[in-house]
Design goal:
Largest sheet: 3 strands, antiparallel
Shape: globular
Order of helices and strands: HEHHEEHHHHHHH
Structural class: mainly alpha
CATH architecture of the largest domain: Up-down Bundle
């Protein structure tokens, strides 16, 4: 199980105190991080008792966290097999990318219509943090900050339902991003593309911003398409066996 912080990728900014996470939130945070960083692989089964023992909690918050992840599309469930990390086919990932393109285009256009210098500065600051994470080869932090960078822009569209749909699509494919983020050349390319996106936002150029984001997204899909099968068989562990979170062979 990865080490936990109160809010990964978001260190304390100033002296304001944060409310400690509930047990269920802490379990959910740990599982999300395990999926996002590739510690948990597509098709890998999760065992409630083992997770509860490893985290020193009861089964109730574990079950609640698993059900949240299931609702988000990150886990699948059946009464006989329990929970496992959702596996997507190549066709499903391409479809997710298509829908993301439609929704994110609208979010970017609306965000740039509302653009201000404060957002541009925030995006620059986050991208500088991403560069630091890359230099430290801290993939988990890179993943978290990359999310923060893009959603800083999407949030500025001020369309909460649209944002929720985009977030759901990102979560559904989180487990596959590790293959991209583990590649140092891919991370450097992302940083460069982020800089181009920031510049388009500074110029309030929504056309160029959408083009940059389309290329950014499609490059990732190109990388993933060579790693995925046409069909994803449910509950099959690509790693060759079942284990609980954090358990090693």
């Amino acid at each position: 199980m990865p080490k936990q912080s109160a809010e990964p990728g978001n260190e304390d900014r100033g002296s304001r105190m944060r409310r400690p996470p509930t047990t269920q939130e802490a379990v959910l945070l740990a599982l999300r991080q395990s999926i996002a960083t590739g510690e948990l692989q597509p098709g890998e089964r999760l065992y409630q008792d083992a997770i509860a023992d490893q985290m020193g909690v009861s089964r109730v918050p574990v079950r609640e966290a698993l059900n949240v992840l299931r609702a988000d599309g990150q886990l699948d469930y059946s009464p006989h097999r329990g929970y496992w990390v959702s596996a997507l086919s190549r066709e499903a990932v391409v479809e997710i990318n298509l829908i993301r393109g439609l929704l994110e285009t609208e979010a970017i256009r609306r965000a740039i219509a509302n653009m201000d210098d404060e957002l541009v500065e925030r995006m620059e600051a986050i991208n500088n943090e991403i560069a630091d994470a890359n230099a430290a080869d801290d993939v988990a932090r890179f993943v978290s900050l990359n999310h923060d960078f893009h959603f800083a822009l999407f949030d500025h569209a001020d369309l909460s339902r649209l944002r929720q749909h985009i977030e759901a699509l990102w979560k559904s494919a989180d487990v596959y991003r590790t293959s991209i983020f583990n590649d140092p050349e891919a991370r450097l390319r992302m940083l460069s593309e982020h800089e181009e996106l920031i510049e388009a936002c500074r110029r309030r150029d929504s056309v160029i911003a959408v083009q940059i984001m389309d290329a950014h997204r499609n490059k990732a899909i190109e990388t993933l398409s060579g790693l995925l099968t046409e069909d994803a068989a449910p509950g099959e562990n690509a790693g060759g066996g079942d284990r609980a979170v954090g358990e090693r062979e």
